[in-house]
Amino acid sequence: MLSAMPRRRATSRLAALVAGLALGMSFGSGCHGDRPARHDIPADGPLDPALEGVDDVVVRVMSQLCIGAGVLAIARDGEVVAARGYGFRDGPPSRECASRRDRFAGGATTLPDTPMRIGSVGKNIGAILVRRVLRDALAAEGLPADDAAIEALPLVGGPLRLLPPRIEETLLGPRAPAFATGGDCDARADPRWREVTIGHLLSHRAGLPGAGPDLLAGDRLQALRELWTREALAAEQAALMPPRRAIRQGPGRDGYFVAPPELAEGVLALGSTCLRSDPGARASYSNLGFDVLSLVAATVGGRLEVARGGDLESHDGSLLDAFLRDELGLAAGRASRHGISLSHPYLEARDPAEPRYRMWTPGRRTYYPEYDDPKRPYCILQGDGRCTFDEWRERGRPVNYAWERERLPLSYEWIGAPVSTGLLAAEAPVLLEIVGRYWLGRVMPGGHDDGAPFYGRSRALHQSPVNRQHGGNLAGATAWAGQFVGAPVDYAVVPLAAGSGRYDFAVATESARCTAIPAGVDVVVAFNQSYSQDCHLDGEVCGAAYDLWRSLLVEALCEVDWDRVGGES
């Protein structure tokens, strides 16, 4: 039963008006006007009758936010009790959502096995991969190889070399950082790097900032690659696909195309980054930590962690491929090539089973923005020997590229940064099986986070006293995975706007606690959208909506009669 769970109620017209005036709008009264609370959205796949309320919430959320495609998978004690696909793989989910700028396409419907981008949910897969590699490496050296030993491994200066030599020498101090950033660690790396362990990285407690230095600022990439002569720059350019025509050279201008930044270069650049806190002192969510772990996995494992962007065949033999084959017996997905794989930025390399990703972009007034093709940045050699990327980065300036300047449907502005496990696409039932075997890294609201590095720990070997979760957001996709252990979970109460039957995300200020979801319930949900046309009126409310749908899902799970789930219908 629920503990202090308020009943769904409609907000008063006065309250809605006040909230609307304060925020500039009441989300849900967007440019299409009030729509029915539930559209006629196609849904496919098995569903336990006791979970119809959960299914209904997914359809209502997709109806209100006009999300094109979604998938849902639920298991109880390892038994799949729901595997659903919603909407269409292209365009809006219903005719009611269609507009002049978002025409209804219909066509191929979303299957339960349609692969979807999962954003940072992929960090949990990256954690599994690095644990597998380190376990094998420790065992090969005759060292303890359990999770405690893995988590205690120093990143640098330990019994295993986890990073390429140049990076390790930089972080340990004998070698100066590749470039300066104007901080206290320009001359030598922060000495606290010696204290960072794999466990710190796995628990977001390494002291890292949220993002690293911009590698395409000034001449940083030139410094990382030590391209200090015209001959070195020319050799770098020659290794790329030959351009159709050269950069137009003006008086005193000398330009060179180079390959985009790589993962190892992003980690090497951290040598001039001071840690924000002592390792282990406090948690601070950081994508950088998992970039480092990805490089550790590739370095120690001796092969790619996931496929190389744009290279379809490089999935085969990768660490991810080995995991899927060895652990899940999965040589191919049901709807996709591999079940889980890199969602390539470029359409020509992407798995055709993936949907068309959607993100409303106000400036371009489209769900399908296009960005400049960034595969080959270029630098202009200055009189002082510095080759800078400032001109290439200035997007509004007319540039004579070495190929026709064109915009590509990337669905997010990818500027050549390494994507690692943040850009995986997964079939929901495959991801659900992984969630059933390995713990997720984050704690659900209502539970205490003790700082233990649960990312990638085996559920067969470790117990979690709290419900665990992980969300993922990437332009054009949003996802969530949850593991319930019978502990209480808190969620936001999203009321209905009076008279419309629509969720009023702007006034979701109350919370409730649920104690009714039993242990052994695992959930995966993903959508092919991260921003809606309504949102251009108030991005803050829209951002809340794309988080609060998770609370709606938890509330629906809380209302399920779990004694009926898995029984005779």
Automatic annotation (TrEMBL):
Domain Beta-lactamase-related, chain residue ranges per copy: 56-302
Range of residues in the leader sequence? 1-31
Q: What InterPro entries does the record point to?
A: AmpC-like, Beta-lactam-related, Beta-lactam/transpept-like
**Which keywords describe this protein according to UniProt?**
Signal
Cross-referenced Pfam families: Beta-lactamase (PF00144)
PROSITE patterns named among the record's database cross-references: PROKAR_LIPOPROTEIN
Question: Sorted alphabetically, which PANTHER family does this protein's record hold?
Answer: BETA-LACTAMASE-RELATED DOMAIN-CONTAINING PROTEIN, D-ALANYL-D-ALANINE-CARBOXYPEPTIDASE/ENDOPEPTIDASE AMPH
Name of the protein in its database record: Beta-lactamase
What is the scientific name of the source organism?
Nannocystis exedens
